[in-house]
Fold this sequence. Notes:
The structure holds five protein chains of five kinds. By secondary structure, chain A is mainly alpha-helical. Chain A contains 14 helices and no strands. Chain A has a single domain, classed as Orthogonal Bundle (ABC transporter involved in vitamin B12 uptake, BtuC). Chain A has helices spanning about 5-30, 30-55, 65-80, 80-85, 105-130, 135-155, 155-160, 175-190, 195-205, 205-210, 215-240, 250-265, 270-295, 300-315. In chain A, helix 1 (about 5-30) packs antiparallel against helix 8 (about 175-190) and helix 3 (about 65-80) runs antiparallel to helix 5 (about 105-130). The two termini of chain A are about 30 Å apart. The longest helix of chain C is centred in the N-terminal third of the chain and has 32 residues, at about 5-35. In chain C, the strands form two sheets. Chain C has a two-stranded antiparallel sheet with strand order 1-4. Chain C has a domain at about 15-220. By secondary structure, chain C is mainly alpha-helical. The radius of gyration of chain D is 17 Å and the shape is globular. Chain D contains ten helices and ten strands. Chain D has a six-stranded mixed β-sheet, with helices on both faces. In chain D, strands 2-1-4-5 form a four-stranded antiparallel β-sheet, with helices on one face. Chain D is α/β, with parallel strands linked by helices. Chain D folds into two domains: about 1-75 and about 155-235, 3-Layer(aba) Sandwich (Rossmann fold); about 80-150, no CATH class. Chains in contact: A-B, A-C, A-D, A-E, B-D, C-D, C-E.
Amino acid sequence: MKQGIRAEWYFLLGGLLLFGGAFLATQFLNRYLLYILVLMGIYSIATVSLNLTNGYAGLFSLGHAAFMAIGAYTSTLLTFPLALREAYELPMLPAFLGGPNFVWPFFPAICMGGVLASVAALLIGAPVLRLRGHYLSVASLGFVVIVTTLAKTMKGLTRGPMGISAIPSYTNIYWTYLWLLITVYVIWRIVNSRFGRAMMALREDETAAQVLGVYPMKYKLMSFVVGAFFAGVAGGLYAHFTKAIRPFEFSFFLTFQIVVMLILGGMGTTAGPIVGAVSLLTLRYALKPLEEHLKIYGLIEIIYAVLLIVVMLFKPEGLVGQKRGVKKITVGGKSSA
Amino acid sequence: MATILKVEGLWKNFGGLTAVSDYFLELPEGEIYGLIGPNGAGKTTVFNLISGVLKPSKGRILFQGIDITWFRPDQIAALGLTRTFQNLRLFPSLTVEMNLRIAYHTHARSGFLAALLSTPSFFREEKEIGQKVDRILELFEMSDFREEIASSLPYGWQRKLDIARALVCEPQVLLLDEPSAGMNTKEAEDLAVLIRRIHEEFRLTMMVVEHRMPFVMGLASRIQVLDYGSVIAFGTPEEIRNNQKVIEAYLGVGDLIA
Amino acid sequence: MFSWSYFLQQTMNGVILGCIYALLALGMTVVYGILRLINFAHGALITVGAFFVYFIFFRAGINLAASLLLVLGFGGLMGLLLDVIAYRKLRGGPEVALLITSLGFYTFVENFMKMVVSPQPYSFKTPAYLAVMYKTSLLTFRSIDVFIIVSSLLIMFIFNLFVKKTRMGIAMRATAENLEVAHLMGIEVNRVIALAFALGSAIAAFTGFLWGAKYGQIAYDMGFLTGVKAFVAVVVGGVGSIPGAMVGGFVLGLAEILSIAFLPTRFAEYRDGIVFGILILVLLLRPSGLMGVKEEVRV
Amino acid sequence: MLKVENLTVKYGVIPAVMNVSLTVGRGQIVAILGANGAGKTTTLKAIMGVLRPASGQISYQGEDITHMSPSNRVRKGIALVPEGRGIFNRLTVEENLLLGAYSRSGNDVIMKDLKEVYALFPRLEERKKQIAGTLSGGEQQMLALGRGLMSKPQLLLLDEPSLGLAPLVVRELYATISRIREQGVTILLVEQSAAVALGASDYAYVLESGSLKLSGKPEELKSLEDVKRVYLGG
Amino acid sequence: MKKWFVLGFVVLFLSVAFSVYAQEPIKIGVVMGLTGPWASIDTPATNGAKLAAEEINKAGGVLGRPIELKIVDTKADEGETVAAVIRLIENEKVSALVGYCDTHWVNIAAPLAREYGVTFVTPGATHPRIPERTGAWLACFGDNAQAAAIAEYAVKDLGLKKGAIWVDTAVDFSVAVCAYFADALKHYGGEVVYEDYFETNWTDFSSMVARLKEYQDKGEVDFVYVGAIPSNCGLIAKQLREGGVTVPMFGEDGFDTPLLVETGGEAAEGVVFATHMSLEDQTPIIQNFKNAYQAMFGTLPENAFAALGYDAIKVLAKAIELAGSDDPKKIPEGLAQIKGFEGVSGTISYEAGSQVPNKSVAVIEVKGGKFTTVKQIAPEYMPDPKLAK
């Protein structure tokens, strides 16, 4: 295991290379390809952060879309142009957030989105993380529906189901990859500290971890809250990228998409989530012209689904994942070698 | 010698079934006690109760004078009592080193921010953990397995890793649940030597559940025998071996059928 | 403030929706009980069933009774195929793989339908003798409403009878409780699981017909949310419990309808929120569900 | 009736049973004794086909069944009453019993056998509609036995039938086991409680740490000295 | 010598022949939700656009150049929409964009096109605040016009005053048209008894039906105005009638879909809705359009949106001609000059500064399963566009 200072330098070097790459991309690629690159970055942030909860801590949460929604709406409300607030019937900021003549800069607004997502994770996590296995998954899915419902009904803040458009388009390739770098760095640091080790221990065997002194709730919550922060960030970036958000965007489908990316790439690995996000999006945009040419709409999703089933059948641990000791349902004399 | 672990009138009911009834224990500091009994006598349940994995229906558990009856397992571990498991509960998909590093948890002090920023103090602590792990690996002659995935180790080594892991936790009292299960006689003998060595080197207090009699009799200074959830005998190995009640518990009452 | 007839009418609406959820939950709970699989593909069977009846009854003109028998058989076959093609191979793998595969199946079926049938909704005419209107001073209803309630209760009754009285049914419950011992008893576990899939899928496909006949429009994506809600019903009722699945279905159906009926109209937007709110509440207060057996945690 | 030759069973890489050979003659009660973890249960599971042997051969009525599926072994007349009884707690007593006859056909015969089982265990008949999970330990053991009998076995494998039962109940249980043998069923049982098992059996094997240590007629083992050594060391 | 002559002739011929085709085509991007809830209106609109492009190319193209449509399905997905707009402008270098029959999607796509300085024309998104917010041009009337037309028809022609309004809160368009309708109804002396809310993805409307029936039985309601999109209108009509509701039902241009009669069946009888034009009209331009459409796609135009898609391309072509260039910067100048353009969906003129054409509204009633025009209304009262969010 790489540990400490030297690995950090590699990280910095990687970051510089990444930014060099981003610069070259802005110089030589057209906006459509840049668009896809940014989208890959945003989905990677979401997938990498989900990996902390689902991959390392072993909690199969389906709540990521909810945190993305919270981040998206929060940052949007903070950065929305003063001039358009009235036209869109959105409120001015209250005094403690800067007052009616103030609009937040992009970076702190995104952070704030992440923070509020974390707060939500803390509130919902305390009861929901007590649940085990599929119950946790279903309850977190319920949380997504409830957040979507709130986004629909808190019309004064969210304009309800109609959503908010004309969001300033601050998200670009630099911001996205800066945040991706931060996300990967933070999660890498956590994984390589006692905090991450405690999470992995819980994933592997909760009782064993407990008798070694790990308090499950604390570290489950920590993974949930940190994961939620970066999900909120991804949501904020997404909002300032598509420039329009609606409650419906942050529903089952978004959650499932991210989960699928993670599992396809490989849970609990550093590269897995990014590989998953990049490969699925590449597939999608590479197939797009084919779909349009053949005029078979839905073809992408069908290929997507078949691919998913094939990967699950033949490499259930994901593209870059390693086989793990998992509990098995044994049928018929298979438990003995 | 001072009593480090004291259990008074411990009961545990599962539904209508009484698994442990009126169990007691006074474990002196620095001793190794054995806990034996036929299948289903409640030995593991006793360990589960002491380590906090299960909550008793009645009774009191004192560790270093602190009432830990209602503590969570992690709190008990933080006070210095940990255990191993009969059915091996390693962290199967992690490396040997990771298994051990995790166990240092209760002693690690560095904060979240320090970890994120990788501060010198964090770095120093990680190094300390590394040294501690090295020492234990050496002691267990497992240095070569450092990077191996735990579940890929040969079974005997997995057993040893389980004990090694508990030692990284630096407990004062260690409960070993069938440490030699699944080992052959030779391996078991080696393990006994190792346990004795650990006992001396770390000045540990231990309690061992075992079914391999020579193993436990050679190791423990006193043995408790459990049957139907209660203590039916307590004494030195020699006393236990010749105790009629114990023989009956194990072999059955001679004239029951015949 | 509300009249009796209003109350009765809304309750009936809730019961009908409840019947649909309960029928779907039935199949899901059996599969979940044995395999711990949230079978998202179950929702796809609603869609497939509805379109199957559409084509053989409305287009090919096969008579209704025969169509319904055929759709049951067709649904069962689909379930069987799913199990044999993919799920069986994955048994023993990580649970997540099974879950994701079922999601993959759902996505596949939905988009396949979209491609083959069209992304447009299809109108689904209620057969004339199921569309007869009855107006009384208390209730307005159609024969299809009666048909849904009667056929659902009948299916639930038969299903219960099957599970309680037949050799296969008892084997199914035994497998759900302890797969290994069931295997010891000489039960061909794989066959039991395949049967569970087949039965659940047959009922789901039939529910697709009820759905179409009741609401009059079917679409390639009709199954997803319904399927998810049916699983919510399973959890609310208590996983693995057959009576629980039915109770859960009715609780959800009634909650959905009555909340709209008796809350001020602006609360209509909370419809799905209420369903999932109930779910979270039940999970927190009574994790084993309304009718479920507490699951033992082994140490 | 049953012949096990050089049986070795491993869990992953760990051998649980090594080179065990034993024979059970028709109409006998044979006991396998040994302390916790000696490999008794593993041996039974291998005979039943739930575990696959790493090496060795199992033949039953002269036929090699080493690679036969458990359900086919059930059809051939082998039944296992598992350790801890393996009762389906959520099913009724009668349903549990009927599951024992799962692999058989012919409703009338099964109903007749059900009556016989009820005759053997009148208490089960009283409680046939009761949920099995609510039975007492002794009753559950009766139910497990009865369920095993419902498959009309010629060879009945019993795994620690006396586990967790009070002495009086154990005595009752063994009386029943003898009666079952009188009906022509061959029995291979695993017990930790040696005295009890020796009192009821025709022949006994003693396992220690996965290998055979002793075997002989109960009279020969009766002194218990060797057995005691295996159990308690010495 | 002769050889050279023949060769020269061939070269000349080829260069003339290619002069039409070898010319760079004028590319127009078409973004539509061909899959998803809006498919039943976006698909005919796309077909209409294809037909218009084909006709234009047969007649020699625009400015001597053929028109090439680049059609992208954006699947009712925000990310896909942004991606498609960027791709069409950046990669395909389209001169203008045409798209969507629903406001929400125009709200996302058009501002982006505006950033690039590319004109966006929507065939069927009717929110009158679209130009103000996004800079897009409408080929259709505004929602305030169609809402006012129905209010006028209900109160003045039928004498119905007490209305219930059903709003699909998930769709901007429905929220807007219902707000305009409430305003217009009050203007004409009517009264909004209550508003009820639903969402696009509902299938079961039984609880709302029972509530309406309760009001109806107490005699408190004369009619219901439903702001449903195509995939819901038939479903709602059917469930209303089968639930015992007998009061008249009114709708907007989302009802202009075959699904209304297919799904609604007998329940759709007597439903009255406002739309852009009636395909039943016997005018030659409509009949020609219907024939050409059928020849190309094997089916009659499904609804008015086919005509709107057709008109959007024709208007755009006309604008390019008027501007004399397909330079995206020049196209708005051409559009602004369009006056009295005879489209299939009616006469299109952009009055000074307005990007919403002044068109009359067709009020249609379902009679015997057919859409029959009962009236053409040029509303005398126009609700203020600002009333809607």
